[in-house]
Amino acid sequence: MINFHPTDKQLRQFAEGNISSAMALVVAAHCDMCSHCQEKVDEVNVELAQDIENIAAHEMTDPAFEKMLAEITAKPMIDTRPAIVPKIELDGRFFDVPRPLRRYVRNTGNWSKLLGKVWQAPVDIGEAGAAHFIFMENGGQVPEHTHRGNELTLVVNGEFSDGLADYDTGDFLVMDNEHIHSPHSNNKDGCLVFSIVDEPLHFTSGLARLLNPFSHLFFK
Amino acid sequence: MLVGIALENNKSNTSKPKECANEMSQYLVAVASERCKRSYAKIFGYFAPRLRSYALKQMGNEALAMELVQDTMSNVWQKAHLFNVEKGSPSTWIFTIARNIRFDMLRKLQNRKEDICSDDLWPILCETTADQNEIPLDEQVTLEQVGQLFNHLPDKQRSVIEAIYIDGKSQQEVADQLSIPLGTVKSRTRLALQRLKDMLEDHD
Entry's SUPFAM superfamilies (chain B) (predicted)? Predict the structure, then answer.
């Protein structure tokens, strides 16, 4: 069951389009999995559309409009075809991803073993941030760390815990420098998450601290 | 060049929002199924000036505002068949298109090399993908059910569906027989099937 959602403010900013691309992508993917939040966004859309309807409209007599109308209606119709649904593959297992992430499956690099039973595959989203699919096998653990910037995470498939809470498929998490956590999965089938960070992680305990100088190489 | 398309200069809209939404929905359907320019001119006359005011407020620049209006209204014309009355009103659909275009415009203006675009975030202008695990519609329902719902289709859509699915004609043959463009046959077929599907879902 989904327990962690974007705030109402984040959902409103998403509906308005006044939101960073990275945040928009993770919120969109969450909404694709969470009908509760999708309904909230739909409500804001209706409200914002009413603002446009009620706006004091410009005069229609402007000749620019007439020209525009003629140009538009000279254009052909566009027929769109449903796209093939790509899946994320890891060791012969295939995972469905929420619709907003599907295009990025093609932009996903090879899986590499990060630490112990944790795997990651980089996802190219340009300058919007550093994105990865991360898979924790049963018993896999990411060392305890905090964040210099923001870490946005969506649980795509499975369950994991991080010492702060337990998360399930569809959960949406925002972590920053006030959160120290150590994600691990005890789920039989492991856990696949999608994550975007804007700054490298900062490891906080034990030997993993030695990783800090290099952490930009791992979780950049 | 403008023959046959009259702009609506009637600024005041006296009809109630609900009625207006129904009216605009019908125009959108006419654009989708018959490329009806007159219907489109009605939609344009109502929304383009409002969008311009909205866009001017958002972009703060007349040229950019008009670009936003043009891109939004082009999508309304070119992708009218993606409007689904079950999912919301025309104004909400058109607002979401404008919101998406503004999102992409702002990123382009700021020269950000981000590989995230509005179509990923708000997939309103994509055909919804059929779920691969979904049982095909024709296996879920009996012919009898379909036959009953079939009678609720508008005449134009019904005649196309009859010719294709009962008489077994090709879409081109239907177009020739009814003396209408092939594109019209295709869009009527699509709309009719969508409508049947919607009716079946309501039926359950």
Answer: Sigma2 domain of RNA polymerase sigma factors, Sigma3 and sigma4 domains of RNA polymerase sigma factors
